[in-house]
Amino acid sequence: MAAVLCAPAALRAAEPLRIGVAGVSHGHIHEVISKAHRGDFTVVGVWEANDSLRAATHLHDKVDGALFYADLDRMLDQTQPEAVVAFGPVYDHLQVVEACAPRGIHVMVEKPLAVSVEHAHRIADLARRYGIIVMTNYETTWYATNDEAFRLVRAGVIGEITRMNIFDGHQGPVEIGCGPEFLAWLTDPKLNGGGAVMDFGCYGANLATKMFLGEKPLKVSGVLKQQKPHIYPKVDDDATIVLEYPTATVEIMASWNWPMNRKDMHIYGSRGYIYQDTATDMRLYTGGRETHLTPQRLPAPYDDSFRYLAALVRGEITMAPYDLSALENNVTVVEILEAAKHNAAGTPVRPAQPPRTK
């Protein structure tokens, strides 16, 4: 009898996660297209308000044309997804959560969570009120080297952290060939919240927030530059953000002006350092000696955003508030980015500190 009673739950866990796609203009939409064949999720509906984008998306190669909608509410009500993945402008993340939360539909957005603190707090309020998951997806979350760096730091291998230098970016979205539908909002100060400071500054803020277990910095400083105003006239293309913690300094270097693609970081401690060089390679210095490390690939579901989302929705795993995809972490990320932008503009703001407990 017990086996019979448990069968429906086991069957449901084995079924593909029913997802809706909200927006198709983000360059990372290829993540849906390239993984649609795996069978761990199925696209039950696609919303895109722009008629031409909706008609032209390569999702038509994977999804029946009858499942495309111009109206978000209609798509949600007629297809009833378990979760929605947002691949439109960052500004639209709030709209997606406003539609999904009252329906009990979980949401995954591409980084960053929101264009502003106002939007981020509204998203958080909706998620808590309706009990949904709002997950933020970063490429670097699935790096085995980042996971190993966290493990080594928490184990005290390099002592107490004294400094972190985090480098993220590439030659620029125009230079690397991002599509016009992506560039239209990625380089818009309203729809993206800024330029490189948002696009790549969020990575460093996200990693630092996890490394310090959700602690907010005491002070945030920012320097934003337009090194290529002829290409990016409306937004910054280079950002330096400095976070001051009680015992450490974090410098985030986010740019559309690197001569190469990079997502790496250096972590210095009282007894050594960790250089996370790539997604697969890193170096550890302790006892006067540097060792090269190649951590094993992360096991499922911790190796992929869609598998991770499915495991969260099914209750197979949980997130700590400081985890890289967690809502709390990413609200702090947006607070840091907004504080950096205000500081760069000469109006100092720092992330709100939680009330002290006696």
UniProtKB/TrEMBL annotation:
Residues in GFO/IDH/MocA-like oxidoreductase domain copies: 149-274
Keywords: Oxidoreductase
Domain of life according to the entry: Bacteria
Xref: Gene3D superfamilies: Dihydrodipicolinate Reductase, domain 2, NAD(P)-binding Rossmann-like Domain
InterPro entries assigned to the protein according to its UniProt record, in alphabetical order: Gfo/Idh/MocA-like_OxRdtase_N, Gfo/Idh/MocA_oxidrdct_glycsds, GFO_IDH_MocA-like_dom, NAD(P)-bd_dom_sf
SUPFAM superfamilies referenced in this protein's UniProt entry, alphabetically: Glyceraldehyde-3-phosphate dehydrogenase-like, C-terminal domain, NAD(P)-binding Rossmann-fold domains
Keyword Oxidoreductase: yes
Stored Pfam families: GFO_IDH_MocA (PF01408), GFO_IDH_MocA_C3 (PF22725)
GO MF terms held by the record: nucleotide binding; oxidoreductase activity
All residue ranges annotated as the Gfo/Idh/MocA-like oxidoreductase N-terminal domain in the record: 18-138
Protein name (Swiss-Prot/TrEMBL): Gfo/Idh/MocA family oxidoreductase
Higher taxonomy: Bacteria, Pseudomonadati, Bacteroidota, Bacteroidia, Bacteroidales
